[in-house]
Predict the 3D structure of the following.
Amino acid sequence: MESTYDPQRVEGRWYERWEQSGVFRPEHNPDGPPFCIVIPPPNVTGSLHLGHALNMTIQDTLIRRRRMQGYAALWVPGTDHAGIATQNVVERELAAEGLTRFDLGRDRFIEQVWDWKRRYGGRITEQIRRLGFSTDWSRERFTMDDGLSRAVRTVFVHLYEEGLIYRGNRIINWCPRCHTALSDIEVEYEDVAGEMVHIRYPFTDGDGGIVVATTRAETMLGDTAVAVHPDDERYRGLVGRTVRLPLVGREIPIVADEAVDPEFGSGAVKVTPAHDPTDFEIAERHGLPAVIIFDDSAVVTDAGGRFSGLDRYAAREAVKGALGEAMLGVEAHEHSVGHCYRCGTAIEPLLSEQWFVKVRPLVEPAIDAVRSGEVRFIPERWENSYFHWMENLRDWTISRQIWWGHRIPAWYCDACGDTIVAMEDPEACSCGATGLRQDPDVLDTWFSSALWPFSTLGWPDRTDDLDRYYPNSVMVTGFDIIYFWVARMIKMGIHFLGEPPYPDVVIHGLIRTADGRKMSKSLGNAVDPLDLAEEYGADALRLALIQAAAPGQDIPLQVEWVDAARRFGNKLWNAVRFALPHLEGIPAEGGYPEDPGPEERWILSRLHEVVTRVDDLLEEYRFSDAYGQLYAFAWSEVFDWFLELAKAPLRSDDRGSVAATLGVVLRDLLKLFHPVIPFLTEELWSHLGGEGLLAGSTWPQPPASEAPSGFATFQEVVTGLRRFRAEHGLAPRHPLDVIVVDPEGVHDEWWPIQVEALASVRPVWQAGLPERAGRTRLVAGPLQVFISLEGIVDLDAERQRLAKAIAEASALLERSSAKLGNPNFVDRAPSDVVQRERDKAAEAESRLGTLRAQLAELG
Ligand SMILES: [Zn+2]
Ligand SMILES: [Zn+2]
C-alpha cells in the first residue's frame, strides 16, 4: 500500500474495472427487487457544472446503497438534444465560416448537428465517469435516438387523435431574435422603467372621444376595438358606439368586457388582438378581427401603413410624434416585461399558427396524484407551488421554429386542405394527391424529456425493463425545473402508463458561491467541479456536497469543505495502513466476532447504533444528517478512540478477536462511505482483502451489541488527564501522580490497562478519598480523579493563573450578555450571528464554573 493517499492515482484505477465487471447493471442482482432512477438528462452541448455534480452525487448515493442492499438497481444515463441551445452552438460554428443554416439547407444543417454531437457529445458523459457516477452505460439514451423518437411520435399521434394536440392561431411568446415561439415557462419577467401614454380616440358620430392608456403606443396600429368594463358607470352609455383610430382611420367599436380592469389607466383599454393575449381573448368573445402589425423580427408590416419597415421601438417614437393633439400625455410607468430565457430579448406577443397541447384534461389527474400522496415532494413545501402552477396552466405551445429537434409529424395537402398526422410518413393524401408538405417546425425539447421516465425503458414497446422499472423509484432534481419537467412527466406518465412515473420527488437546492451569490458563467464566479476533482479528488468533492445536501436547501459551497473532505480521505487511508499488518492471517470475511472484548463491544454497539440511525436518515433522504453522523462516528469514535483502544489488545497474545473487530469495523466503514466516496473506499477495500469489488458487496447490518458499562466515564477520565497535560503545557507522556477514587466500583479490570495506554498514567485506584493538599480534582461521572500538582505547578502561580483566567472569562461573559441584552442586536443581526453570540456566552459561563471550582480546590 502506498504510504500517502493520492486521489488522482486512486481515482484513475477503478471506473473501467467497475464498468467491465457489470456491477453497474441491475443484472448484478438478478433476483433483487427493482429500484430505478433516470438521470435528469444534461444538455448534450453542456459540460458538467456543480449543480449536476450535486444532483448526481445524491442519485449515486441512493443507487449504490440500494445495489449493496441487494436491489436490482438501475440508473439510466443519457443526454438531451437541447433544441435551441444545440442549434445555436452549431450556428455559431457556421457563422465563423461566414455561413448560416440557410446556406446549408435543412438536411445538411441537421447532418452538421449530428456530426457535432458525434464529436463533442461524449464530453459530458466522460465527465460523469470521471466523477465516479455508477450509471448503467449499456442503457444510455439520447432524446433524439431512434427509440425515443418513436416514443415522441407515438405520443404526438395519440394526443392528436384524442384531440389533446391541436393547431391553432393563438397568441404565443415570440422571440424576435431567436425567431421561435417559446412556452410560457421559457419567458423571464422583469420590471422595466417604461411609460404610460394617454391617447384620445374620437367618436365617429359626433364630438368628443374616449381616452385609452397604453404602455406600447405603437400597438395602436393594430387596434380593432376599445374595451371597458360592463359595470363601469363612466362608460356605460358609450358601449356600442364607434371611434376612429387616429393615424390609421379605421372605425372600431367600443365593447364591454369583464377582462378590463377599471382601475388601470382611464379604465378604457385599446384592444390589439394580434399582439396581446388578453386582447386576443376579448376579440374572440366579441368577434373582432386581428391585425398583425409585426413581422418575425418585430418590424412593422404593411398593415402599419406609413410606419411599415420600422423596428418596434422606432415605431413607438414615430407613432407618438405623429399623434399630435390626440396624445394627451405621457407619464413614467414601471411595468413587467417578458424576456427570452435564452437571449434576453423582449418577447413580442404574436398571433401565429402553432401546435398546442390542451393541458386541462392532463392536469387534473396530475394534481390528484400529488394531493392523494401517490407522489410526494421532499421537502413537502414544493407541493403548493406545484398546485398553484398546475391550476393556472394554459395550453402548452409545443412547436418551435427551429430545425434541430423532433420534426412535427403533420403533413398538409394543398389539393384538399387536409392535415395528416401519422406514425408512418404518408406518401399521398386520401384525396389521391401527392407532394404533401410536412410541417417545418420541431417540437419543444421538453416534449421529449417529459417522456424520459418511460421512453428510456423501451416504451412504446412493452419491454422487460418497462415492466420492471416503471414506475421509477425516485426523481432527484432541482426546484428550477419542477414546472419544465416534473409536472410534465407526471402528466404524461399518468396519461400513457396509467400511473405516475415515481412516488418520490427529491428537490435539492442550488449551489451558490461561498458568500451566497448565484454562480454563473457570465459573472465568472462559477467553480468547475472538474477543477475541484483535479485538485482535491472527485471523492472529496462528492463528500463535501453530500454533507451539505439537505433537501430544498441552497448550498453556499466553500472550497475549505472540499479540502476537509480530502483530509478525511487521508485519515481513512492512514487508518487502513495502520490496521493492515495486524490483519495478517485474519480471514477478511470472518464476520462479527463471537466473543468480543470490552473495547470491541463498545465500538460494535456504536457501529450498530450509527448504522441504524443512518439507515433511517437515508430512507428520509436526509443526506446531510446521515453523512454528518457517519463522518463524526468515523473520525472521533473509530479513528480517535477505537484505533487507540485496539493497540494494547493487539500487542497481547490474545489479539485475534480485536484484530477481527478492527477488520470488520473498517470494512463496514468502507461500505458505509462507499456510495459517497467510491474510489477511495474501493481502493482500500482491495487492500483489506474484501472479496470481489466493494461496489458489488453488501450493505452492513451489524448486530446489536451492548457496550461495557461505564464506558463514557472511562472516556471522561482519559480526556480529563489528557486535557490536564495540555493545559499545563506538559508533554503527552509526562509522568503524573494520580489517584482515582471509585466509591461504587464502576471501573472494570481492563480500565487500568487502557488508561495507561491512552493517557500514559498508572493511577492508584481506591474507594476512599485521599489527602487533598496539593492535588487538583477532576470529576468523571461517579469517579473523582486527583492529580498531584507537585513539581508541575507553583501553587501561587497557579492561583494567579486561575484568577486571571476567571477575570478574562467574566469579562467575556459580561460583553456577550450586554450584546444579547440589546434588542437592536438580537432583532437585527443575522440569526446565525446571534446564535454564535449565545454559544459564546454559554461557553464562557461553563468555563467560568470550572475555573472557579479549580481555584476553590487549591484552597
Ligand atoms: Zn431569444
Ligand atoms: Zn388531399
Notes: The mean pLDDT is 92. The radius of gyration is 36 Å. The first helix runs from residue 7 to 21. The pocket of zinc ion (ligand 2) is lined by residues 413, 415-416, 418, 429, 431, 433 (CB under 6 Å).
